[in-house]
Design brief:
With about 325 residues, this protein is α+β, with helices and mostly antiparallel strands. It has helices spanning about 50-60, 90-95, 100-120, 175-180, 185-205, 215-225, 230-235, 240-250, 260-270, 280-285, and strands at about 5, 10-20, 25-30, 35-40, 70-75, 80-85, 125, 135, 140-145, 150, 155, 160. Helix content is about 30%, strand content about 15%. The termini are far apart. GO terms for molecular function: ATP binding; protein kinase activity.
């Protein structure tokens, strides 16, 4: 797909937004309406655009879920036309000198938890969380994108059974320890990935991030060796203590367990000190489009949070450069 060409006789390809091993995302203008969109395509249909579109169709209508306008196939591509969003957290982090303020990070994390709670309510795990997958939209709403590796952990109303000897999926930097060990990913793995992202946004990079190109197996093994042995207090020494608690909580979750999103929002809000936490950000929960039946496997969801007001979610992310 070339810049300056017309695709499907109606989409003018204005430029490349990003690319990966199997596909690419382009900025496009619909000629008839002059509206701007993003179009994601598979290279020779080897990627996951078709599968991703099925997941996204199920999630449509949720806050922070990209809207889909068209899905189709040609002899060369499978494509998906979506709403055009703003920069990623990764790009914004670079613009901020590699770090965000604590207040900004907490606001990001609470919105990210809202997105995870929403997609998890459909029995879907994202399985590839990283700063590049979170984009800003209108009114600074945080969007979670790229569902090419997303999978169902609930099937026919029941949680999938424990599985090991699975292929590792996602990215090694933010992968959970269970993912490294070949255990099938569920909700807990998304939460653990987000906890590593919290530290990364705070200190700039994680100690196990690789700086040289290695083959996939060597890279994953090197990352796991550091990630599994580094003392968590050392990892989080430049972070609020709540980030340490976040990682410990995530690693303690069981395979079938539903995370206590409310508890996590409340806990992370305490890291705002000396900034007073906006109660509406902590309390707001995304609306579910349908109920998912599952086994109750944890007492953590019964934790009671007191003195938190139940009002509408604050949407503003203050991108303040940390000093």
């Amino acid at each position: 797909m070339q810049e300056g060409t017309l695709f499907m006789e109606k989409y003018f390809i204005e430029g490349l937004l990003g690319s990966g091993g199997f596909g690419s995302v382009h900025k496009t203008i619909e000629v008839k309406s002059n509206r701007t969109f993003a179009i994601k395509v598979d290279k020779k249909r080897r990627g996951n655009v078709k599968q991703e579109s099925v997941i996204l169709q199920e999630l449509q209508g949720g806050e922070g879920i990209p809207k889909i306008y068209e899905v189709g196939e040609t002899e060369e591509f499978t494509y998906m036309v979506m709403e055009l969003l703003g920069p990623s957290l990764s790009k914004l982090q670079k613009q901020q000198g590699g770090r965000f303020s604590v207040d900004t990070i907490v606001t990001v994390l609470i919105q990210a938890l809202n997105r995870l709670e929403y997609i998890h309510s459909f029995g879907i795990a994202h399985r590839d969380l990283k700063p590049q997958q979170f984009l800003l939209g209108n009114e600074n709403i945080l969007f979670l994108v790229d569902y090419g590796l997303a999978r169902k952990f609930m099937v026919m109303g029941a949680h999938i059974p424990y599985q090991s000897n699975c292929s590792r999926a996602g990215n090694s930097t933010y992968a959970s320890l269970s993912n490294h060990l070949g255990i099938h990913q569920t909700r807990r793995d998304d939460i653990e990935s987000l906890s590593y992202m919290a530290v990364s946004l705070m200190i700039g990079r994680l100690p196990w991030q690789q700086t040289v190109k290695l083959n996939s197996s060597t890279k994953w093994n090197n990352v796991y060796q550091i990630k599994s042995t580094i003392p968590l207090q050392e990892l989080c020494q430049q972070c609020p203590k709540e980030f340490l608690s976040f990682i410990r909580y995530a690693r303690a979750l069981d395979f079938h367990e539903e995370p206590d999103y409310e508890y996590l929002r409340h806990m992370l809000s305490n890291a705002r000190n000396p900034v007073e936490v906006p109660a509406e950000v902590v309390r707001h929960k995304p609306k579910r489009k349908k109920n998912v039946k599952e086994e109750s496997s944890s007492d953590s969801s019964n934790l009671e949070l007191k003195n938190v007001q139940d009002i509408k979610n604050r949407k503003i992310i203050v991108l303040t450069k940390s000093k």
